[in-house]
Specification:
It is a single chain. By secondary structure, the protein is mostly helical. The protein contains 13 helices and two strands; from the N terminus they run H-H-H-H-H-H-H-H-H-H-H-E-E-H-H.
């Protein structure tokens, strides 16, 4: 049901943030950022891996290659800009940093699933904010309060910008092509690099400039129009759904075979699968998803 989908989105979203904050506290910042930005790689792995597992005999396997390569190239650019390092005694921080990327990928996919179910972006962000506030309030019972001083007022613009970022991210995954949006998330590192140069007068080495160029090039590649054969192949391969299973011991992410993946990746779903996996048009509003070439 829709409420349980919001609960699942809050669970994986808060888990991702909690793991990321732990990684930031126990790892070099560049390493924690790199591991968290692996979320785009995990999104590609979930979607493309599902397509490969359900591929019919005789169909070529190379159609999904360009999008996957662009995501991997973008992550390579992130690694070149941040140049992460990790010590032997930081294994737990590295593991949780890696898990923050996995949970973030599940959260982004759930945002896309909520959009297909007809949920508006503001409601999705509102329920996620409520879940994060609830978990934070419970966590404060076991931790001391930081003294309130003039520097605490900086939390207000931080919170405002975070909400705006969540709204933009949710709108992007709701109306754009999933893998294209996942690739363009790497641009956050590019902007961070530019801010560090302009505001803090930092120096970016040559490998950092090359990484920035690689991120930009991968984003341009991902936004190019797809071939009709690639759109048709992915559009008939897999459907991605996120379901709440109260009878199970945990929340499960389910991959069901049909054609809705094309709706989130390429914008061309097979109509036969829409009726079997999603509510009928009488029970939910339809939502138009743009193709990769028009999502940017």
């Amino acid at each position: 049901t829709i409420p349980m989908m919001h609960v699942w989105r809050s669970i994986v979203g808060v888990a991702s943030l909690s793991a990321w904050f732990y990684a930031i506290a126990h790892l070099p910042l560049a390493t924690a950022m790199t591991l968290n930005y692996m979320s785009s790689v995990w999104i590609a792995a979930f979607l493309i891996g599902g397509a490969l597992l359900t591929q019919r005999q005789g169909e070529p396997m190379h159609h999904q290659g360009p999008l996957l390569l662009s995501v991997l190239a973008g992550f390579g650019g992130v690694a070149m800009m941040l140049r992460p390092t990790m010590q032997a005694n930081q294994l737990m921080g590295g593991l949780l940093g890696l898990m923050s990327g996995v949970f973030a990928a599940l959260a982004y996919l759930q945002v896309s699933a909520l959009a297909k179910a007809g949920e508006p972006e503001t409601r999705t962000v509102f329920y996620f904010s409520c879940g994060a506030t609830l978990v934070g309030a419970v966590g404060m019972l076991w931790n001391d309060f930081s003294p309130w001083g003039p520097q605490a007022w900086w939390l207000l613009p931080v919170g405002l910008l975070a909400v705006l970022g969540q709204l933009c991210m949710t709108r992007a995954y709701a109306s754009g092509a999933t893998l294209v949006v996942a690739n363009l998330q790497y641009m956050g590192i590019v902007f961070a690099g530019i801010y560090s140069i302009v505001i803090f007068d930092d120096q970016l080495p040559l490998i950092g400039w090359l990484g920035m160029a690689l991120i930009i090039a991968s984003g341009i590649t991902a936004t190019q129009p797809m071939s009709s054969s690639m759109r048709a192949w992915i559009g008939s391969s897999v459907q991605y759904t996120m379901t709440w299973k109260p009878s199970l011991t945990s929340v499960a992410a389910a991959f069901s075979v049909s054609g809705m993946l094309g709706n989130s990746v390429c914008g061309s779903p097979s109509t036969s699968s829409l009726h079997s996996a999603w509510p009928s048009s009488s029970s939910r509003p339809r939502r138009r998803v743009r193709t990769a070439s028009s999502a940017v």
